[in-house]
Specification:
Elements lengths: L9 H17 L4 H8 L3 H13 L3 E3 L5 E3 L1 H24 L4 H14 L2 H18 L5 H12 L5 H12 L1
Antiparallel strand pairs: 1-2
Helix pairs in contact: 1-2, 1-4, 2-3, 4-5, 4-6
Length: 166
């Protein structure tokens, strides 16, 4: 079954993401640690693990550590990639503070369509290419608009360009 064919709730995606995070950071994922990461009680974690196991996304026996299956790892990586991409867009391009960008990315990562995610990814890459040569003028203009609520006039843009070269 492909990652795209597996349909689980955003809540279950959060569990996969937490398990993958714990595996990366600690090497193992335990029920109690998953509960701490997600701020839920052990019975909620156990109920979620039953659902994930039924979908062949994890391997878990009572009182043992949780392992992601191959499909579980793929799905967790997919969720994390969506999160990271949305976070990058919100924080680096829209200049939203990190805490708000994290919270919003956690919500958006579950709702974004594959087509929108693909376009957002390409847009970020496009911007990053421009950032390799310094901030592109349109991004400088946008940042000015964020600060002042006013669009740069042609004269103001020329002044901003001169200041940028000095």
């Amino acid at each position: 079954m492909s990652v795209e064919a597996i349909r689980i709730s955003s809540n279950m995606e959060d569990y996969l993401e937490a398990i993958a995070l714990l595996k990366r950071e600690k090497g193992i994922a335990r029920v109690s640690d998953i509960g701490k990461v997600l701020r839920v009680k052990k019975p909620s974690v156990n109920a979620a693990l039953v659902t994930l196991a039924k979908n062949d996304l994890i391997l878990h026996e009572r009182y043992s550590v949780v392992e992601l299956t191959r499909e579980g790892r793929k799905l967790a990586a997919n969720v994390q990639e969506r999160h990271d991409t949305v976070f990058k867009f919100l924080s680096r391009i829209l200049e939203i503070d990190g805490k708000t960008a994290q919270a919003d990315a956690c919500k958006i990562e579950h709702a974004i369509s594959p087509m929108t995610f693909n376009r957002l990814t390409k847009f970020i890459r496009f911007v990053e290419i421009g950032l390799g040569r310094g901030n592109p003028q349109w991004l400088k203009s946008f940042k000015h608009y964020l600060k002042t609520g006013k669009k740069l006039s042609c004269k103001m843009r020329q002044t901003a360009l001169k200041k940028g070269k000095e």
